[in-house]
Please model this.
Amino acid sequence: MASAREPVVHATIYAVAERAGVSTATVSRALAGSTKVAPGTRDAVIAAARELDYLPTAAASALAGRRTRALGLVLPHVDGAYYAELLVGFEIEASHRGLSVVITLANPREDAEGTVRGLASKVDGIAFMARSAATDDLIARTAPRLPVVTIARPRIPGRDALFSENRRTARELTERLLGAGRVRPAFIGRPERGSDLGMRHLGVLDAMSAAGLPAPGLLACDPVEDQGVAAAEHLLSEGMPYDALICGNDELALAVMRHLQDRGVQVPDDIAITGWDDTTTAAYVRPGLTSVVQPVRALGALAAQRLTGLVDGTAPDDVPTVLASRIVHRGSCGCAGD
Amino acid sequence: MASAREPVVHATIYAVAERAGVSTATVSRALAGSTKVAPGTRDAVIAAARELDYLPTAAASALAGRRTRALGLVLPHVDGAYYAELLVGFEIEASHRGLSVVITLANPREDAEGTVRGLASKVDGIAFMARSAATDDLIARTAPRLPVVTIARPRIPGRDALFSENRRTARELTERLLGAGRVRPAFIGRPERGSDLGMRHLGVLDAMSAAGLPAPGLLACDPVEDQGVAAAEHLLSEGMPYDALICGNDELALAVMRHLQDRGVQVPDDIAITGWDDTTTAAYVRPGLTSVVQPVRALGALAAQRLTGLVDGTAPDDVPTVLASRIVHRGSCGCAGD
DNA sequence: CTGAAAGCGCTTACAG
DNA sequence: CTGAAAGCGCTTACAG
Model:
């Protein structure tokens, strides 16, 4: 076993101060862009810093300044373009504000408590995304310690909660199907209170009751491919009692659609199918899958933005925010029309 | 504008020490799991820490301990499941080792230099993924400051470089096509020296020359959808001079395939098509797209692992590492066989 | 506009 | 096995 890497010694603020002929306080101010530094002094400091290739140690700044200049993002332990997109929005916004991003995957099988506590010790604020091992309770206990926002998950009392529009969009989508004569829809997915899927389910209910129709069918299953296959199998065994399937996400919708097609069911003639998230695949399958585009990147950016506001004390408090979604009509719903 | 959030005061190591009736040195050791602490003492410290809900300030630990206990990951500024998967592998491995992950998207349009320098000041080591705004030069200049590894990008002299197997897999894929009678293949993508696509292109050349055949065609374009469409259009206008298209990634392959199919070309009868990355969509289109699964998650994990070794001084130096890829045969290549 | 000095909250030789 | 004390490298009232 080799010995630990010998750390290269780098210039500190003292070296810069000495070279520029000023105090470390002045170096600190000049480099922070303080306006109360004489231009000439500032230039000398900047020149000295550059000559020494000075890079302030983040830990020292954080300790002295009581700001880590970092934001935390807790994601469910899954892959997928959806979360990647959220991360992109969050990171870009954070980096525009000079903040770095510490990312954590909350794995149900592991020590979520320890993970989140650890994160809380190294960032100025945390965004919790959707369903993850970070429970309501854990988030609530974390919140007094530092600013917290939630994204696409049940709201924590007194904390900012961000969502994409779900209920109203689901209602519109359902009304569109009803308008095309599909009056016996079923919802596929597990609607949980306050979650994205829960809200989507409510939107479907809204449309049905507004139209004076009975409640839609419900096939409760987790939003993953194999459960979609199982749901499709179940439908076939039941003799296809519905004429439209509003799926909680694309993964489910694609699995259901393919399985039904493989069994000879015609989409959309025999049954209409819709999804959510507008994944890449939705546009590539045939018929194209009607889906809902969510402003995921904007949601990520908004989270970073509100967190920054909370950290600086410039944010209005406790305002839930909902960003608009948009239906993308393709062939699978039999209502693409125009 | 509201005033800045009043920080809640939390227990420090002094409070824990006082409560446990020991010195802060002992608290520090006990909590770090040092073996040189008497069991009774350790229990008392742990109890006191729990009672006070003590959370060590990461900045203070980092400053005093000269270790941030964080790893940096620089990704190209794009979304997509591929990078998400890499991040998952990296994060899981890092978190297993008690390290957190600071993620940065290197955007060509922005200050990559400042971004990477900032990152270098807050982590113990950095992994640079693929093509990003982090140039060879920038990475080389960062490397003396802290441990660095690269992933799927041209190697930086003297630094660890990780890859998934590209050249040999490309050769196998090509040989399979040749075996199925497709002797006039073209490569679609922009092969750059030392990059994943560059290696894939070389593998195709290997197979052709080993078979005593002329070099394959080359349609140089960036690996994005619209360039795939343009390439397909070009092929049509040329009268389809090839019988197989080996595309640098799935995005390109899918765009090419769809465009050709829309123009009446039969896949694989008229032309065979293959991609790389085995995206979700590859399995959903018809015919299914033959593609190559890369060990992306494992690559991420390996990067975190080697970085940790480098930080601790326990890593063998300068060993390039290549992880195996696997071809997934589907209908599009006309060589699925069985 | 600038500096001296205290202090941020830990870790780690060093000594016992 | 434990403690006193120095020190990690910054920032920020405070005073001028």
